[in-house]
Design brief:
The protein has 13 helices and nine strands. By secondary structure, the protein is of the alpha+beta class. Helix 4 packs antiparallel against helix 5 and helix 11 (about 310-335) packs antiparallel against helix 12.
Length: about 375
């Protein structure tokens, strides 16, 4: 199989990298990470330059490009700073559902303001510690003459404190699932923040829907199609998280490489020790393997021909490689890597947060083995 980036894709990659190198100030990154603040000014600049919503249709204000182009932007951003890059890439989480299943009016209402830097979006799906378990949704949606009323609790929601709109799911009285979008300023919406150790620039928390009234026009797609909405979201949103993993891994390698070239130990640079050279070589090999897998996945997603086993395998490999590479980079720094002024410290913390969005290796391997062998069932 022959696969190469086009000249346009290379230009996009280069432009995103140049923007991040110019704008992502290392001291600002440390300050934002420490305070848990979103990089508002950088979000605004990124939207003005067309990096946010690059895969939206031109009639909505986007550039009409693909998921691969969006991946290239996220990778470049996270390479320069894992925290800022991930924060900027999650400002429109859930756009995948609106683009595929939303009405033209819903697309204009929800997505166009995002491209202008005026609003943000998130998904509020999960209800248990396992955020991807949708088998027993307890959020209730009542249908009334003038619309819907929703009540329930959603857990572990990314971008919870900043999103202007949440895409959520609930269960009607007849048992059918329904997909709705809810404005955060609606009466009855309560957000409870949760602190975490990684990706601190991205807010995180639980959301209570206390008899929130929603008009009929806020329903996305048809009642009963929610499982398809979820599957489409999980497939396409995975590319965001994989791009974060790839960029973060590359950024960790770059920092380890730079430090090894300048740090003196026992009268020699670290880069002159074979053990360090081999560490860096293994990290580079891992990243190239991961990059090929992720680029191919995005290429296939844009052509709507995704192999689910390949998607799951890519997520497993990304989780493994990211942990190994960031950990090795931290070890190259030695004790200095544990200091806040060295950005590798927050790369390490951010890596574990990114992995949590990919899914646990055990869950992913369960799904792969089910595809290979059929669903596992305990006898007697």
């Amino acid at each position: 199989m022959e696969f190469e980036l086009t000249a346009e894709q290379i230009d996009i990659q280069k432009a995103a990298l140049e923007f991040a190198q110019k704008e992502f100030d290392p001291d600002l990154a440390i300050e934002l990470d420490r305070s848990g603040q979103f990089p508002y000014s950088l979000w605004k600049k990124a939207t003005e330059l067309g990096f946010i919503g690059i895969n939206y249709p031109e009639e909505l204000g986007g550039q009409g490009l693909g998921l691969l182009e969006n991946l290239l932007v996220i990778e470049a951003f996270c390479k320069i700073d894992s925290g800022i890059g991930s924060a900027l890439s999650l400002g429109d989480l859930g756009a995948e559902i609106v683009l595929e299943f939303g009405s033209e009016e819903q697309k204009k209402t929800i997505l166009t303001p995002i491209i202008k830097g005026e609003r943000q979006l998130s998904v509020a799906f999960g209800e248990k510690e396992d955020g991807d378990d949708f088998s027993s949704i307890s959020t209730i949606v009542e249908e009334r003459e003038d619309g819907y009323v929703i009540r329930g609790k959603k857990r572990f929601i990314w971008n919870s404190a900043l999103a202007s709109t949440f895409i959520t799911i609930g269960r009607k009285e007849d048992g059918n699932l329904i997909t709705l979008f809810i404005e955060r300023d609606k009466e009855g919406v309560e957000i409870h923040s949760i602190e975490k150790i990684g990706l601190r620039m991205v807010s995180f928390g639980d959301i209570d829907f206390n008899d929130v009234r929603i008009p009929f026009q806020n329903r996305i797609g048809m009642v009963g199609d929610t499982i398809n909405h979820i599957k489409h979201y999980q497939q396409n949103a995975s590319l965001r998280f994989l791009a974060q993993a790839l960029g973060t891994a590359q950024g960790a390698l770059d920092r380890g490489l730079s430090y090894a070239k300048q740090r003196m130990q026992f009268g020699r640079k670290l880069s002159e020790f074979q053990v360090i050279r081999h560490k860096l070589a293994d990290m580079a090999i891992g990243i190239e393997v991961l990059r090929f897998m992720i680029y191919k996945l995005a290429f296939d997603c844009d052509r709507k021909r995704v192999d689910q086993k390949y998607l799951l395998a890519t997520k497993v490999e990304a989780g493994r490689r990211l942990v190994e590479i960031v950990d090795e980079a931290l070890q190259i720094f030695g004790g200095y890597g544990y200091m806040v002024e060295q950005s590798i410290e927050h790369y390490f913390r951010d890596a574990w947060a990114i992995i949590s969005k990919l899914g646990t290796e055990e869950e992913l391997k369960d799904s792969i083995s089910d595809m290979l062998l059929g669903p596992f069932s305990k006898k007697g």
